[in-house]
Amino acid sequence: MKHLIDKLEKNRILTKEEFMYLIENRTPETAEYLFERARAVRQKYYGRDIYLRGLIEFTNYCKNDCYYCGIQKSNKNASRYRLTKEQILECCKTGYELGFRTYVLQGGDDPFFTDEKIIEIIREIKKGYPDCAITLSIGEKSYESYKSYFDAGADRYLLRHETADEEHYSRLHPKELSLSGRKQCLKDLKEIGYYVGSGFMVGSPYQTDENLVEDLLFIKELNPEMVGIGPFIPHHDTSFREFKGDNGELTLFMIGLIRLMIPNVLLPSTTALGTIDPYGREKGILSGANVVMPNLSPVNVRNKYLLYDNKICTGDEAAECRSCLENRMKKIGYDVVVSRGDIRTEAIKGE
Ligand code: SAH
Question: How far is the CA of 133 from the centre of ligand 1 (A)?
Answer without folding.
Answer: 22
